[in-house]
Design brief:
Strand order of the largest sheet: 11-10-12-13-9-14
Structural class: alpha/beta
Strand content: 15-25%
Low-confidence stretches: 1-11, 100-117
Number of helices: 11
Largest sheet: 6 strands, parallel
Length: 338
């Protein structure tokens, strides 16, 4: 980010350091964090040193890294001024987006498909969710813009979490009448019949990640009531057969474990006024040997259709613990091409 785009009254620099001035010292305290841990995170990520002098922060380091750190600090300060708290994840996301959130795109390998710049907010009952990487931002844009979107990439990149958040936001806004969340219960196989309880008891363990996401965006009692009223449905993929899903926001999670026939069955459930999101990780296929993944076939067969959005994530988009990205990279490097 060019320094010239920053407000001149807030930033001054010379050959060795960049000086940032903040008018509200109380907001600056929140920006620094307890024991300056927020500043320490920016220092660690960008390889700079940040010194505090009254209502000023001095950034010392290589010019390019100083510019990025300055943009990040000003971006975080702006969020705090607007009443939005920041945490480690928010700081990491601001760093990835260069501070201002102007870098946007959907990445396929190293290709970036550009979308309109500007913040992308998903407002739910419990929180406002913000994408933390360029690929996440483009993905959220596509979820609002396309009737059918795919999110493909490794675990921890927010594919399902963001899809559920958008579904909740569209439900709250009255754009859809219900939310339907589904997964293939591949891990259960034929063992479902041996598990205790009724069918809901049998399949709930496999649906738990979807319940977890919902509970992040809606109060627990409201989730329970909406499920009771069938405004929210959480069910295995097999339960989708024979239905037409109209005026609904539909998410198929772990789609790499759907067979080709199951994927075709699911995609052809799309009805009027509905949106579908298909998420999956091609490196975690649990289907029996010799059974092709419906996700891979969908990419091959549908990739050329303009009205369908394919969004790809890499280890650079992992928003869990920083070691998760390194673990994914290590396994990817050791895995022969498919």
């Amino acid at each position: 980010m060019a320094i010239s785009t920053l407000p001149p009254e807030e930033l001054h620099q010379n050959d060795h350091e960049t000086l940032l001035e903040f008018p509200d010292n109380r907001v600056l305290i929140d920006l620094c964090g307890e024991y300056d841990r927020n500043l320490a995170q920016v220092e660690h990520k960008l390889g700079v040193q940040i010194l505090r002098r009254g209502n000023q922060l001095v950034v010392v380091g290589e010019p390019e890294m100083r510019d990025q750190a300055a943009a990040v600090l000003l971006g975080l300060y702006g969020k705090l001024e607007a009443g939005r708290p920041i945490d480690a994840g928010e700081i990491d996301g601001t760093i990835r987006l260069g501070g201002s959130g102007e870098e946007t795109g959907s990445r396929d390998g190293d290709q970036i498909e550009m979308f309109d710049a500007g913040p992308v907010e998903i407002k739910t009952r419990k929180k406002t969710v913000l994408p933390r990487t360029a690929a996440q931002k483009a993905y959220v844009q596509s979820l609002f813009s396309y009737e059918l979107a795919f999110g493909i990439g490794p675990a921890g990149t927010g594919k399902t979490y963001l899809a559920v958040a958008v579904g909740v936001a569209m439900f709250i806004g009255g754009h859809v009448d219900k939310i339907i969340l589904s997964r293939p219960a591949v891990e259960a196989g034929e063992r479902l019949g041996f598990l205790p309880g009724d069918m809901k008891d049998k399949v709930d363990p496999y649906m738990q990640p979807l319940y977890d996401a919902l509970n992040d965006f809606l109060p627990g009692k409201q989730v329970a009531k909406l499920i009771e009223d069938k405004k929210i449905e959480i069910a295995p993929l097999a339960f989708m057969r024979g239905r037409t899903l109209s005026n609904a926001f539909v998410v198929l999670d772990e789609a790499q474990n759907a067979t080709t026939m199951q994927m075709k069955m699911f995609l052809t459930r799309l009805g009027e006024g509905s949106r579908m999101v298909v998420t999956g990780d091609r490196t975690q296929i649990d289907l029996p040997r010799g059974v092709p993944s419906g996700l891979r076939d969908a990419e091959r067969l549908l990739g050329g259709i303009r009205d369908i959005s394919f969004n790809y994530f890499t280890s650079r988009d992992v928003v869990r613990h920083h070691l998760v990205a390194k673990i994914i990279e290590a396994y990817d490097a050791d895995t022969p091409p498919a």
